[in-house]
Amino acid sequence: MILRWHGHACFEVVDSRGFTIALDPHDGYSIGLKPPSFKADAVLITHEHFDHNAYSTVAKPGAERHSMREGEFLVGGRYRATGLKLYHDKVRGRRRGEVVAYRVEVEGVSLLHLGDLGHVPSDTVLAPLKPVDLVLVPVGGTFTIDPREAIEVLKILDPRVVIPMHYWVKGVNLPLLPVDVFVELARESYEVTTLETNELRLVPEELQELHKARVYVLSPP
After folding, report:
1. What pLDDT score does 191 carry?
2. Measuring CA to CA, which residue among 17, 77, 12, 10 is closest to residue 40?
3. Residue 132, SS3?
4. Are 36 and 25 in contact (CB under 8 A)?
5. What residue ranges do the domains of the chain occupy?
6. Strand ranges for 25-180 from DSSP E
7. What is the Cα–Cα distance from 155 to 159, expressed in whole angstroms?
8. DSSP state of 214
9. 115 neighbors 136 (Cβ within 8 angstroms)
10. Are 100 and 86 in contact (CB under 8 A)?
């Protein structure tokens, strides 16, 4: 399985046969980035905010659209997914609404996209999303959890691999923190690697052999 980051909270997941899943696509221009450069067979949207729901930007003709879908379902008729309602803020959605986090199993790798999570849920609340190999976690604060809260959430989820998202990079016109604060906190518990690419290949057998959980900071595309 190949995972590619297209800036902000947008990820591309590609299986060995080329089936492609988009998670939280943005249109690029509205947040100061380039538009995502791929087309997807299925699009998962955690919430209907402009920087996460640009279906038409990435969708192939007839692509599946799963927006804020709760419960268990199949993506592409083949990959098991679970959607869990969480909140975009610390007041049960009264300020920014709800988000649906998605756990998807692709070719033996379970990944979790937390969307614009705005609070630290309890272990009981997050239980339906566990166990999980890879967590895509927002760390930029302002509209989501901040770096310290992200670490709290990760302690509950206990993944093998973490990829931070939804933080400030050059060009972004949103008031977000850069990834550096999260990285410094993460070094206490994780092996942190900054990659010079926006791509990560994930092999189930290699994940099982990791002796220490890892954080990979991907480069903007």
Report:
1. 96
2. 12
3. coil
4. yes
5. 2-217
6. 40-45, 59-67, 71-75, 79-87, 98-106, 109-113, 134-138, 161-165
7. 8
8. E
9. no
10. yes
Query: Which tokens belong to 79?
Result: 């990959």
Please give the mean pLDDT across all residues of the chain: 97
**How far is residue 203's CA from residue 120's CA, in Å, rounded to a whole number?**
29
Write down the pLDDT at residue 66. 99
Tokens describing residue 16: 């060995």
CA distance 25 to 166: 12
pTM, entire model: 0.97
- 48 sits in which H/E element: none
- CATH code: domain 2-217 is 3.60.15.10
Token pair recorded at residue 126:
């997050």
Q: Is residue 171 within 8 Å of residue 32, measured between CB atoms? A: yes
Instruction: Please give the structure tokens belonging to residue 50.
Output: 């402009």
List the structure tokens of 48.
């209907």
